[in-house]
């Protein structure tokens, strides 16, 4: 080919390529879906900014674990209330129902029950058991990856279009009855004529990446930094008995978590590890909807860092003792501002004996309820009395996986006013559960333009 023909052909190719492109040959970047910030349900936006973290006044208790320090945090969303019993039950029920559906699908597979069998356990068979209803990708996954996991059923798709039957009189067949029987405690362990769930089988599995570990050692493979967790999700209701010796709290043990009367009260008896699992499930549950609606995935829900919690609790007030300011725990009408133990032996002086509904008392200036009192709250941080001396001043966090002492903040219904102070630090062990510790979640805000400092300009 001579040079003249080559140049003509090259020009034609360039012209064709240009005509088929809308960027006119300019560097315009890759255009994705238009992003519309969406306020998460039940959350409030906490604008990022700088604040003085730690004790502004003398440390009367002499603990010296929270010296005053100026730090800056990003903008984030936070639950306006502590996670309630009703909300946590949604998590527990999801785990229970998923466990039941998996057991039903496995047994249906073992006995050869087909998905079209509407009269028996076959209606709960794996969806991919019917190749006619599988997408090309599902067929590929079925042919290449099914059977490689510990049970041989990893990756199989459950049928969630059929409601689980809980009434024993309506069980479709003996196979269904067999599966449901395994989810309850044995008959010999029942009492009062009722069989109860075997809550030890309510387990949630999830995998996360240890990004800190990956960043510190770039020679590690992805497999080296993936961590798999399996957590029993049911709250430890026995904490109502175990936390208080020589005290009658059996009604709280029996009713507090399950009864609808307490649905809007904060969940307790949940360990730090269970709170983390809840965050993972909430992200999974929300993104499952996002995927079905062809929307972009949302940021992960998580526990707040210690600095984020204190910043949010202060509600924009600098050097305040409590979320409402202070230095007193009463307002100008003589009413207590939170649920705590104001008088020795008199838990009801603040109009509450135990916990109160999550939307009780006045919210702070970020519209967050009970950032002091009601229940203490887990945060995503390990307790070190000297941590303020060495953590970063930008989005500070200390979460040492080898340190099982996890920070709790805010004080509770059984604490004195000192623990209600926004700067007071306390801790409990990660695998421990208490009748006075709950939690709330946060979600990172997309972008950096929402800061308290910028609003003041």
UniProtKB/TrEMBL annotation:
Source organism: Gilvirhabdus luticola
Keyword Membrane among record annotations: no
Pfam families: FGE-sulfatase
PROSITE patterns hit by this protein: PROKAR_LIPOPROTEIN (PS51257)
Gene expressing this chain: gldK
Lineage: superkingdom: Bacteria
Protein name according to UniProt: Gliding motility lipoprotein GldK
Sequence ranges assigned to domain Sulfatase-modifying factor enzyme-like in this UniProt record: 43-442
Keywords: Lipoprotein
SUPFAM superfamilies: C-type lectin-like
InterPro entries registered for this protein in UniProt: CTDL_fold, Glid_motil-assoc_lipo_GldK, Sulfatase_Mod_Factor_Kinase, SUMF_dom, SUMF_sf
